[in-house]
Amino acid sequence: MAPESLTSTGEAEAMPRRILTIDGGGLKGALPAAFLAEIERLTGKRVVDQFDLIAGTSTGGIIAIGLGLGISAAEICRFYVERSPAIFDQAPLSGKLGGLRSRLRGLRRMVRHVGTAKYEANELKIALEDVFGARLIGDSATRLVIPAYDSAHGGPYVFKTAHHERFRVDHSRLAVDAALATAAAPSFLPAHSFEGASHLLDGGIWANNPMGSAAIEAAATLGWPMGQVRMLSLGCTDTVHPVKDVVGLKDVKWLLELMFQGQDRFSQATAKLLLGHPHSNPHLHRINPTVEPGFVALDDASKVETLVRMGRASARAQLPILEKCFFIGNREPFVPFHSNEVN
Questions:
Q1: Is 58 a catalytic residue?
Q2: pTM of the full predicted structure?
Q3: What does the pLDDT look like over 218-232, one tens digit per residue?
Q4: Candidates 202, 264, 267, 299; catalytic one
Q5: Which residue among 58, 84, 233, 267 is the active-site one?
Q6: Which residues lie below 8 Å from residue 294, measured CB to CB, with a gap of 6+?
């Protein structure tokens, strides 16, 4: 279905379903946040009004929830720029001994990381409460899918809006709780628990790239005709890893990164299978800049401004495709099956 055909009468019925997915990646979420902020600025349209479903994992989950609650992408981008240093204990220190104190603080984090989570969750919680307030998942203006992992029961835990009759619980959860759960990266932040859920961890354990989860949600749960579904997927940078003939204990980091990359590729393949191969359905668009190994760590606050610039530049380059395929008119209103009830 060509976008041009949507301008005729009856366009409400012809409007394709559009999905936005956002990967996990810690502070690298500044890149997709800046990308979306620039797109909103250039088009004059809110992202939340253009997509029928938004899925996000970890840092992508924070962005997805914010967009669903009607927060502008520019404000979400500012969240990364302004709050990241404090969240990850990297706020600048003034005075003659500021540099030395910063190095000592970094050493303290390294020592702490040996036996427990590298960071406390309190700063992230305060920052999220400042942005989300007491709003609930059910306050989202569009459908949300936010993966986490239930380590107490050994399986996925997915926060969802009430976009199906069966979904009676998550819509009444605090947005802050969902964000803290999906972003609780093991060894970096502690597991998150609240009334009704215990020891939830980062959704990146099984769905760092939520393309596959979103496609399955559209096909199996929502029953959308997949030939009419379009997906925009935003990553937080990809890396080409050197090949190795032999892998030893010294290569644990390389192996972990390779496992995440394999998970990413499987999620992409799932989405392609359900939406149709790009040759038959060209409306699956993945944007994930490739960088050299070690370019940026998920907790490196010093690179946030660089990531913001990368996101803005990528948005300007991708604008013609996005305007033709995704920013083609407001989606139909989202009407949930259940109203909010605070547990």
A1: yes
A2: 0.90
A3: 999 999 999 899 999
A4: 202
A5: 58
A6: none
